[in-house]
Amino acid sequence: MKRLFTLLALFATLAASAQNTQTAAAEAAAALSASDDVPEKVVKPKYWTNTLNTALNFGQTWLSQWVAGGYNNVSITANVDATADYAKDKALGKTHLQLEYGQMYSADKPIFQKTKDRIYFETKWGYQTSLKNLAYSASLDFKTQFGNNYAYGTPKEFDGDEPTKEDWLIARTLKSGFLAPAYLNVGIGALWTPAPWISLNVAPLSGGGVLVTIPELRKTYGMDLREGSQTEYTNFRAEFGAQIKLDMGWVINDVFSYTTQVTAFYNYLTPKVEPRITWDNKISWRIAKFFAINVSTNLIYDPRVMVHDKDKDGAVDSKGVQFKEFAEFGFTYTLTTHKH
User: Fold this and answer.
1) Residue-wise over 158-187: b if at least 16 C-beta within 10 A, else e?
2) What is the pTM for the complete model shown?
3) What's the pLDDT band for 136 if we cut at 50, 70, 90?
4) How far is CA 15 from CA 6, 29, 53, in A?
5) N or C: where does the chain have the smaller number of CB atoms within 10 Å of the terminal CB?
6) Per-residue pLDDT tens over the stretch 211-227
7) Which residues, 6+ apart, have CB-to-CB distance to 222 below 8 Å?
8) Closest CA to 85 of 124, 28, 37
């Protein structure tokens, strides 16, 4: 009898084990079947590529009994350069923002002096034509600065005393300011990109104007006299003409980069006046992961802007070429996001 009970218990155990195995197999099959019903994850197409480059630069000079002369000084500048590129089917676009600002303090002038100041925004959009590398285009660019900029004359000395801060402030001459001037241009034309590093935008239909919000600077920047007045000038000058913009840029091993932009604008409303030309260059040489040497130049030829020049009779106002060069070393950081 004991052996009978033992055999019955063994059979019951085997039956339960077989049932559990069938249940597990059924559950696995059901799970596998359910997984087939889950839709595959769809990868969204990516159309944007963004780049952000920031830089913070410091400069300092300290002299002690330096026979050759000179002045102790400190300087700081900050730069932001951001781009956003778009490409989808036959549509393409590029947006660019540049922000630059810098100040310097020198022992020979007990005041802060501006070294850099620039706000530049441009955007170009195109639609590919049937011709290779050629697209219809629409563009907008805007340029001004953050604050006032001055030319510093030498203050008069009183009884042999050194000029004070107030004396220096009185002797300075205002040269430019926020929205004084500001340049705006909107154009329609064609964009030619024969290679990734070069583009030429020709806009035979371009309109915009020049804004000068500070009254004492309006004559300097070629604004028109108000009707019926011999001393007051308008704050805005409308322009309609043609603009050509050439962009080129090279990047070598992510260490050395060079970009250049040449822009020429001819105003149909003043056919006898020469075109306004600007030429901007920027060289960046990264010498370590977060440090770089940057050199930038800006050239402007605007026949309606008066610059100070000198002749045999002294200082006079005349048209001429404006040029600025700036070299700096400091901390830099670049963030690039791939198409999204």
Assistant:
1) eeeeebeeebbeebbeeebbeebbbbbbeb
2) 0.83
3) very high
4) 14, 21, 72
5) N
6) 999 999 999 999 999 99
7) 210, 237, 302, 304, 305, 306
8) 124
3-state secondary structure of 87: strand
Q: Does the pLDDT of residue 279 top 60, yes or no?
A: yes
Contact 74, 104 (CB under 8 A): yes
User: CA 303, 309, 310, 311: dihedral to nearest 10 degrees?
Assistant: 0
pLDDT value, residue 8: 43
146-175 residue pLDDT tens: 999 999 888 876 666 788 888 889 899 999
Determine the Cα–Cα distance for residues 214 and 101; give it in Å rounded to an integer: 21
Specify which residues 94 forms β-bridges with. 85, 124
126 contacts 91 by C-beta, under 8 angstroms: yes
For residue 124, count other CB atoms closer than 10 A to its CB.
22
Asked if 163 and 197 touch (Cβ cutoff 8 Å), the reply is no
Whether 274 and 304 have beta carbons less than 8 Å apart is answered as no
Instruction: Note the pLDDT tens digit of each residue in 53-97.
Output: 999 998 888 888 787 777 888 999 999 999 999 999 999 999 999
pLDDT in tens, 10-48: 444 544 454 554 555 556 555 555 555 556 677 777 899
Query: Residue 148: which residues within 8 A CB-CB, separation 6 or more?
Result: 174, 176, 177, 178
Residue 144 phi, psi (nearest 5): -160, -155
Q: What are the start-end ranges of the E strands in the chain?
A: 48-61, 73-88, 91-106, 109-128, 134-144, 149-152, 172-176, 182-195, 198-211, 236-252, 256-267, 276-288, 291-301, 307-311, 314-318, 321-337
Distance, CA of 141 to CA of 67 (rounded, Å): 49
Q: Which two three-digit tokens encode residue 187?
A: 């154009």
